[in-house]
Design goal:
binds NADP nicotinamide-adenine-dinucleotide phosphate, 6 strands, 258 residues, 6-stranded parallel β-sheet, alpha/beta
Amino acid sequence: MSAVDRDGPLAGKVAVVTGGASGIGLAIATRLAADGAAVAALDLDGAAADAAAAAIKADGGDAIGLAVDVTNRAGVEGAVAAVVDQLGAPTILVNNAGLPQFGPFLKLDLDTWQRVIDVNLTATFHCCQVVLPHMVAAEWGRIVNISSSSAQGGQQLMAAYVSSKAGMIGLTKSLALEFGRKGITVNTIPPGFIDTPMLRRSEAEGQLGPGVDAAIASTPVRRIGLPEDIAAATAFLARDDASYITGQIIGVNGGRNT
Ligand code: NAP
């Protein structure tokens, strides 16, 4: 990772990153730490979360890994209490943990619909409700919700996923209006095609139609996105400089959705 700047733009801040052990979340945790924040990586995979924190610490940063299923309210409350105890009160929250879903709408069963909504949207609700009081107390806060470019135009064969991500966009805008006066900004980044384990799993399962190479060919900047592209935008939104940006959909997609 890039060297940690303990006096960087996020010095003194504590950040919670859900799904922080893999792909986009790992890059975000790493980047926020590089910019000076103490970071808690929350993930289903506790060993991978610990490894993420260890890598940040090896580079001179401050981090912890916590095993938690963010759909579990008590689990989220326990994890945030551990963050307060070990790092301090969090005032940066990145809701990134996510679950993809593919398949025809008429074959979409209620359990699958519910699980996708739970992981992508209801977990965002839990994390916002548990972390926001710390932001309100600090009169400063940053929430960045990682949604999806698929929610901007719809995507066939992904109805539950797109609905959950569109819900994140609506939640983002509503919270921005409610908490702006408290010094808290709430924005969403809908990524385009980003090279992560999730994307490569989906490609291997044949879920991406013509595949990643075809997506690159139709992307104006002619490359696949990197987790670091999303991390850079997230880190910017977390800075003091971004205090006049709230309720926004910040597309990071190589120009695919403009
Ligand atoms: P990823 O590599 O699969 O990482 C997601 C992480 O979230 C994994 O570590 C996963 O743990 C964790 N997670 C899943 N469910 C969880 C839960 N209930 N509680 C806690 N952690 C959980 O995926 P990614 O591509 O980086 O995706 C990150 C976010 O970006 C997702 O919200 C995704 O929808 C969104 N996104 C990605 C793309 C893309 O092209 N990659 C495009 C648009 C949007 P396990 O691995 O143990 O399940």
